[in-house]
């Protein structure tokens, strides 16, 4: 029988995982084997810049937390796994996808995006979506173009009326 203190520590970790998962709009399980210490630090820094982070937990503790939250990711908890999470739905996926292109040792496994389970192919498709800031920039550019076109039309109309 395990020591009561050890069980309390494990339960605290399970509670931490459950809290992290419930507060995050996106979680991604990924395989980090083969990354050097420097690459891991670079990944963590890049994730933090996007408002995300990752932690490494024991698979048994993650399985227990996911089971308590009624999330079925047991088949993805084979081998070492890290849990990336973030409040932005796309940011952790984009960072991990971009990082995996430069560092093939990192492999995305599965994710939960806005409550929906997403396999590796779906995660890669989601990574292609521009960031929120990029989408807002596109929207602003489109709105500026409309205002520019309107001003040109009004100027041409004013010139036509002056010529009459």
Folded structure, characterized:
The structure is a single chain. The protein is α+β, with helices and mostly antiparallel strands and 164 residues long. It folds into two domains: 4-129, 2-Layer Sandwich (Alpha-Beta Plaits); 130-164. 58% of the residues lie in helices and 16% in strands. It contains six helices and five strands; from the N terminus they run αβαβαβαββαα. Strands 2-3-1-4-5 form a five-stranded antiparallel sheet, with helices on both faces. A hairpin with a 2-residue loop joins strand 4 (107-113) and strand 5 (116-118). The radius of gyration is 23 Å and the shape is elongated. The termini are far apart. The model has no long low-confidence stretch (mean pLDDT 87).
């Amino acid at each position: 029988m395990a020591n009561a203190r050890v069980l309390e520590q494990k339960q605290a970790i399970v509670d931490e995982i459950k809290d992290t998962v419930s507060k995050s709009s996106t979680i991604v399980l990924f395989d980090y084997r083969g990354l050097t210490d420097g690459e891991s630090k670079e990944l963590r820094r890049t994730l933090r810049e996007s408002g995300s982070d990752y932690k490494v937990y024991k698979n048994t503790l993650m399985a227990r937390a996911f089971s308590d939250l009624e999330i079925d990711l047991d088949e993805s908890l084979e081998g070492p796994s890290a849990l990336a999470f973030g409040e932005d739905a796309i940011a952790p996926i984009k960072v991990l996808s971009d990082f995996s292109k430069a560092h093939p040792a990192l492999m995305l496994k599965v994710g939960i995006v806005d409550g929906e389970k997403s396999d590796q192919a779906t995660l890669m498709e989601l990574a292609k979506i521009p960031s929120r800031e990029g989408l807002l920039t596109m929207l602003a550019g489109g709105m500026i173009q409309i205002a520019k076109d309107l001003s040109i039309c009004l100027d041409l109309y004013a010139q036509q009326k002056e010529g009459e």
